[in-house]
Amino acid sequence: MTASDxxxxxxxxxAVGTSLWLVTLTCALAQTCTAPINVSGSANFTASTxxxxxxxxxxxxGTTFNRGPDVVYQFTVPASPNLGxxxxxxxxxxxxxxxxxTGKCSTYATCFNWVDNGPGNADxxxxxxxxxxxxVIAHPSPATPLCGxxxxxxxxxxx
Amino acid sequence: MRxxxxxxxxxxxxxxxxxxxxxxxxxxxxxxFNASFAQVTLNVVGTDPTYGMWFFISQTAVVPxxxxxxxxxxxxxxxxxxxxxxxxxYEFEVDTSELTGDTDSSRSVQLFAASSPVVISxxxxxxxxxxxxxxxxxxxxxxxxxGGNQPIEQITIPLTASTATLRVEINVGSGTAGNVRYWINxxxxxxxxxxxxxxGAGLDNAAWTGVIAAAVGMSSMTDAFRANAxxxxxxxxIASSDDLLFWDDFSFGYQ
Lengths: 159, 255
What we know:
The structure holds two protein chains of two kinds. Chain A is mainly beta. Chain A is 12% helix and 35% strand. Chain A is built from two helices and eleven strands. Chain A has a five-stranded mixed sheet with strand order 1-5-10-7-8. Chain A has a four-stranded antiparallel sheet with strand order 2-11-6-9. In chain A, a hairpin with a 2-residue loop joins strand 3 and strand 4 (63-65). The longest helix of chain A is centred in the first third of the chain and has 11 residues, at 20-30. The two termini of chain A are 18 Å apart. By secondary structure, chain B is mainly beta. Helix content of chain B is 10%, strand content 45%. Chain B has three helices and 15 strands. Chain B has helices at residues 2-16, 59-62, 223-228; strands at residues 31-34, 39-45, 48-56, 75-85, 87-95, 99-100, 108-120, 123-132, 139-144, 153-158, 163-171, 179-184, 194-196, 211-219, 230-240. In chain B, the strands form two sheets. In chain B, strands 2, 3, 5, 6, 11, 12, 13 and 15 form an eight-stranded antiparallel sheet that branches. In chain B, a hairpin with a 2-residue loop joins strand 7 (108-120) and strand 8 (123-132). The longest helix of chain B is centred in the first third of the chain and has 15 residues, at 2-16. The model of chain B is unreliable at 1-24, 60-71 and 247-255 (pLDDT under 50). The chains are: A mainly beta, B mainly beta.
């Protein structure tokens, strides 16, 4: 199912005049540090970190940084020897990083893997099976803009 | 008793600054490499008769700083085979219960490497295993090359305890014959914890020929690890299916 599929399936229940973009924006705004966006199964999302209400500090070599709002997704990867994956595609000129963590809130101390290939470039990593995981979309560099649009693809491992 | 033994060893290293190599010897055909800023000793693990590698990385003893260029601290044992193996297994246990400061993903150290006799795309290792700092426990990162000029395949797995038993199986071949299977706290007879196989297409790693050398220990540490990690960590219960070595735990005999 893709993000477009999600929107299509929601259309019959939306009030007239409600925009599809508002649906995504509302989801992003609904998250809090203790209540990230729940993901069930493989999925595609489009959203913006500008809509995030979380701005967690992250640690790099012992120094704490705090740059721009974050968006956090939560999902449970079923046990399987096969590997799933998560891919972040930021809009051009937007430098967003992808963090994979076992905990939420506070800092990125529990983030055990992260990738940032620079502005506009896709960031992909494999995800281990059998864990409750959090994906954090963040802006770790001081380059502006400090937030932007992105698409996120989460692929669960095949059984 | 276990802690007393470790403290005694750590104190001895701190005072003398030397490895007590006269007490124990690495098993043939393993060779030993040691570089600055790290020290290793071989010792029993508590009441366990199995010998292992203990890495003492005291901040005060070795004075590592970020100003020191390059990951020069290393201590590992390694061996080279006369002929490459297309399928081989390795296993060991890692104990980080007395390691401090390894709490950030920028702090990593290589624990294991299995190498090819040829270098393809500047990547001679068929498998490397790194310990990545984390909270509450470190993670393990597996990296293996893929054929067809594809980027390295890797997976990072957070540990759920301070100790972990790790088993890996490296298979070298064309297409799906090339894969790396790993077990964490599970036996070979169990389903693998994970498989690196290029999403089912296979690693297609025949060009690497096979595993001709392996190293286990501590190497390629990042500056952040060297600057922040302290205490000790251990690797023990080291074993392999390699016919040059022993199937069961290697015995570190008296010299």
